[in-house]
Amino acid sequence: MEHNNIMNAKNFTSFATRKRIRERDNSPDMFAVADEDEDAISSDKEAEKVDPVSNVNRKTPGKDISNLRHQKTKSYSATPPSTSEQSPKRKIVLSSSFHHENNNQSLPPSDSKVSGGCSMSSLRSTLHTNHFGLNSRMKEALRSGGLDSTTFQLSSHSSLSGETPPVYTLNSSNVVPSQTSIHCGANHGLSDGAWQAILQTKGIKGLYGWQTQCLNIATKTNQNLLYSLPTSGGKTLVAEILMIRELLCNQKHCLFVLPYVSIVQEKIRTLSALAIALNFSIEEYAGNRGTYPPRPRKSKRVIYIATLEKAHGIINSLLELGRLQEIGLVVVDEIHIVGEGKRGATLETLLCKLLLAPIGPRMVAMSATIGNIDELSNFLKAEIYTEDFRPVQLREFLKTGDQILEIDKRQRGAQENFMKHSRSVSATSATNRKNDPDGLSVLVSEVAPEHSCLVFCSTKKNCESVAKLVSSNLPPTLQQWKTAEKLKLRRALEQESGRLCPILKSTLPFGVAYHHSGLTGDERQLIEEAFSSGTLCCLCCTSTLAAGVNLPARRVILRSPYIGNTRLTRARYQQMIGRAGRAGFDTHGESFLLVKPNELTFVTNDILMAPTNRVYSQLAEDDLRGLQQLLLSLISLDLGGKDLKTLAETLLHSTLLGQQSSRQSITTTELVEKSLKSMMEKNLILHDKDEKLAVTKLGRATLKGIVDLDRSKQLYNDLRLAQGGLVLMTKLHLMYLVTPYDMVGTVVPIASTYFQAFNKLSAEELGVARMIGVNETVMVKLMSNQQQKIERSILERFYLTLMLNDLFKGESVWNVSELYGCTRGDVQNLLSNAASFASCVYHFVQELDEFWAFSELLLPFSRELSMCCTSELIPLMELPSVAKGRARMLFKAGFRTLTDVAKTDPDQLVARVDHLPRRVAQQMIAAAKVLVYEKADTLIEEANSLLELVPRRQPLVPLDETFQTQATVTLPPSYACHVWLTNTKSLVEYHFGLSLLWLLYFVFQFMMPLLERRSIVASWKIIIPEGEFLVEFEHGTTSGKRVLWINGNEYLRKEWMFRLVGSENFRIGRFECKLDVEPDGTFGLLYSLSINGQDIGEFQEVNKKRWVTWNVDSSQGGRDTILFEKDTMDVWLNGIKIDCEAI
User: Which parts of the sequence belong to the Helicase ATP-binding domain (predicted)?
Assistant: First the structure.
């Protein structure tokens, strides 16, 4: 089918453009795809019958891009390809007509045919397919006609002066970006300098083969990516390279989502050196750190490193403000968490909103092996890369009695040859055999002290008892190993909390310690650093360590096939043994699972030979709490509709729950209906006057504060009650309001302790207690164990508040834990959770005007509570993973500020701070530098923002009749410096002062309008399934400024001095876009836009876009026109060029 696109005669097409068209049309078909369906009827010969779009008389600013391809999700694997026969490649080409306003061409009649034999009426019907997924008619059209289901409508546009931009309508069910839009070089698109910086900071010489292969795939396409490898395969490095590429090449921010606060802080430390080398920023979003929305950054690109919950808040705030386009890439580590309880529902909600966003960022997700990775990739609309690579060999053993059996992973599934006898191990003496019947100490001593060993225990109490058991049965000679380092570690632990745990005191000399949540954060960090540096050789820990910070070991021992009273799963088992033999630390790794004879059957069947664990959506669990949170977000942000039917469709097609609904016999409509009813009962949503769903003020506050939906009403009522008699003479009242609801029940109140703490309260504090409902009568009944009228939850919550109050007054963690009957870790966890919840309550009250007073009080109190220390330590506690203990050590060593740490060197830091490994010192200095630079950048950008508020210059007014034409900006008189624009006929005079203040005033009054004026040189209006988008390109031809605006929002900005031509790549929805800037041969420029490799339309630079004009009242009457040409810096008066001279 031929298409004649007529060009208006006054439009100009450059030689370069014509050459590009010829090259494109003569090149091989870029839209050939592999179709594995034997029923596909479009063959190479049939595709060749379709004539290419004619190049003759191309008059419109657009070109035919109707053959955008439909592409299936690709799956990549490093395993050898199958040798089975595959269907030959088929070219799928769809050709259609344009409707042009000038020549009255219209679409072909409904009975006309396109390639594959499908009629246009059939095509039109497929174009109305819901964009959430393919319905049966679309599938039928694709199978019977080989179509792409894509059409375009184009209206003419010759210039930008007051005319509507061209409209390009793209209707496609599942169009994916072109894979050829980004050129990938030897360094995966990065410069040699950036690449060397990565290798040096990571301490590596190159990449593994699978990493190179995965990066090649990721950099040749802009699709989402999901890749899966065993633990210790090097997954994180690939994601970090992709983020750096996004920062440096695409000039977009990145969001790195991690599961735990400890991992967030570790990642900030490890990336800080790279941030300094490559000049980007890092911002922490964990606990109470991070601001919503993130501060706009113009000078530097940023990696936001966040926990799941904080990442949710970032995306919500950016979506609400229309700033999501600032994020170019979202990386999610441990994506399998989507199948784990409440946090899994939070993660699925986050991913769903990113998928539904009109201009959403690219997503890269990684995980260990997942059983149903195809379902997860369909949910994420991602390509898959899988590999069974492990850089260090791992040997698995099973110990039952004295026998050690080796597991042959190659025989997994064949029970007969699955395990073979390796050797026998028993205690060296009768005493040891009695104390240690499992021979655990023997397994540890085989590798200690030269190599490290992790012993995973089922409970916290078991960790402590096993640490004592192992240390008491190890050879006494181990006490001579690294004696000086152990003494420094002991001294550092004592300085942290004022005393040393008796168990650690007895085990540390042997290089043994325990590690669980009962330790304070500083204690855990000191022990982790000692283990990593080799000071400690054995760590007895709970299973949470396997999912936390990176602590590699030569040998891993699983003390029991249980976690608490729950049987170990295959996924958790793989996670634990994955700590053995980490690359860069050991040449090989070993794991031992200790089982009793009666446990052997279930261990073999349910752990060792079990299939890989599958991931299941958690949205419908826990009384639909996760689903309600998702629906509330979608309604508030208008992402998935505002009625029952549309929300049910969104749930079906855009969530993992929807992907799994048929197999789990779930009806999405029923789930949505039930959830909406529950939210209405909670006063979170309502029907507006148009019968559409809308979010109430309480619902919006709940979203902003990331508050549990079931707690939002309770929080509101508590705030209302407190507002009537808020006591500010003490911090106790505010402390009660921010005591986390979900911590109630974690510490059981001790009646005598409660009574003692109550009696120590001051008069003001007693007033707060009575207002809450805890009075003397309650205390008497509590001591006598009588029934109470007050709710038990209030009583327990106030008990936690008293613990916070003691900490706030300076009591040590040790004293509070002993007094209130809990562990040190519980006390510190309460403090950090309270600070985090205070931040949530602050954002909650900001949405409710009636709580304006709380808004002013909670922000500083949240920070005060999180530090809970003397003021001089607060700056040092901004460093990642530095709590009060280490901050105190730094302060005593003479480091008082972040700048002090930033400007020192690692040797000085190691020498002056007890037990600080050099690697940690280097990371700490780098993190301090990043924070100092970030503060400086923030101040500079805040100053620039303030200067932008300076009023624009006043209109030019007549000043004197001495000259023919004279005008001035309104400035204070009597300054010695003048700028004159003069010739024999006229003079334009501008006064400004010599002082820096008035110089700045002059720049922002007069020059900034010249520099900041939006010089829109090209504009396109595009309609795609995600919505209607106005694309505008601003080009400063003198400054090199390039700004891309989408729907009035700044999407991309670059300041490339002296670079006028080139291209910019960006994405709208699922479409890969490219904007080219080329010379037109007449000292002007041509601007063209292409989508998925096909040209849309072009604009020629209009001369007046290079000019700025003023109309000035003349002293002789009438108006004079002064014109300033920005490229040549020439000045014209009433059409006559005048000489310019600076005096």
Answer: 216-388
Question: Three-state DSSP class for 266?
Answer: helix
CA distances from residue 64 to 95, 483, 660, 820 in whole angstroms, order as listed: 8, 76, 39, 74
Q: Is the dihedral of CA 39, 43, 49, 53 positive or negative?
A: positive
Q: Where does the pLDDT of residue 702 fall: very low under 50, low under 70, confident under 90, or very high at 90 and above?
A: very high
Average pLDDT of the residues in 875-881 = 79
Classified as helix, coil or strand, 897 is coil
Decide if 474 contacts 448 (C-beta within 8 A): yes
Residue 297 has pLDDT above 60, yes or no: yes
The span from the CA of 1017 to the CA of 1013, in Å, is: 12
Q: In the chain, count of helices (H) and strands (E)?
A: 39, 41
Q: DSSP strand E in 546-585: where? A: 555-558, 562-563, 566-567
pLDDT higher than threshold 90 for residue 885: no
Enumerate the β-bridge partners of residue 302.
281
Paired sense of beta strands 1119-1125 and 1130-1133, if any: antiparallel
Residue 991: which of 949, 956, 964 has the closest Cα?
956
One-letter amino acid at 886 equals R
Give per-residue pLDDT as tens, 111-156.
333 333 333 333 333 333 333 333 333 333 333 333 333 333 333 3
Amino acid letter, 385: Y
CA–CA distance, 961 with 983 (Å, rounded to integer): 16
* pLDDT of 364: 95
Q: What angle do CA 895, 897, 902 make, to 5 degrees?
A: 80
Express as a percent the part of the chain with pLDDT over 70.
71
**pLDDT of 864 higher than 80:** no
What token pair was written down for 201?
């900071």
Calculate the average pLDDT of the chain: 73
* 224-228 and 382-386 beta bridge pairing: parallel
What token pair was written down for 286? 């964990």
Q: Is 774 helix (H, G, I), strand (E, B) or coil?
A: coil
Domain ranges of the chain: 192-386, 393-608, 625-695, 724-868, 870-949, 957-1011+1107-1138, 1022-1096
Q: Which of 3.10.20.600, 3.40.50.300, 3.40.50.720, 3.10.20.30 would CATH assign to domain 192-386?
A: 3.40.50.300
Pick the more confident residue, 797 or 60. 797
The model's confidence at residue 512, banded by pLDDT at 50, 70 and 90, is very high
- Helix, strand, coil share of the chain (percent; to 5): 40, 20, 40
pLDDT tier at 69 (50, 70, 90 boundaries)? very low
Laid out side by side, the sheet with 512-515 consists of 419-424, 403-407, 393-400, 588-594, 555-558, 453-456, 538-541, 512-515
CA distances, 774 to each of 735, 740, 766, 782, 800 (Å): 15, 18, 9, 11, 13
Of 936, 937, 988, which is closest to residue 960 (Cα–Cα)? 988
Indicate the class that CATH gives domain 870-949.
Answer: mainly alpha
pLDDT at position 413, please? 56
Q: Tell me which architecture the domain covering 393-608 has in CATH.
A: 3-Layer(aba) Sandwich (3.40)
| CA-closest candidate to residue 192, choices 237, 240, 239, 248 | 248
> CA-to-CA distance for 555 and 577, rounded, in angstroms?
9
Residue range 676-701: mean pLDDT, rounded: 89
Quickly name the fold that domain 1022-1096 has. Lipocalin (2.40.128)
DSSP string, 16-67: HHHHHHHHHHHSPPTTEE----TT----HHHHHTSPPPP-TT--SS----TT
Q: Do domains 192-386 and 393-608 have the same CATH topology?
A: yes
Least confident range of 170-174, 233-237, 343-347, 587-591:
170-174
State the pLDDT at residue 895.
87
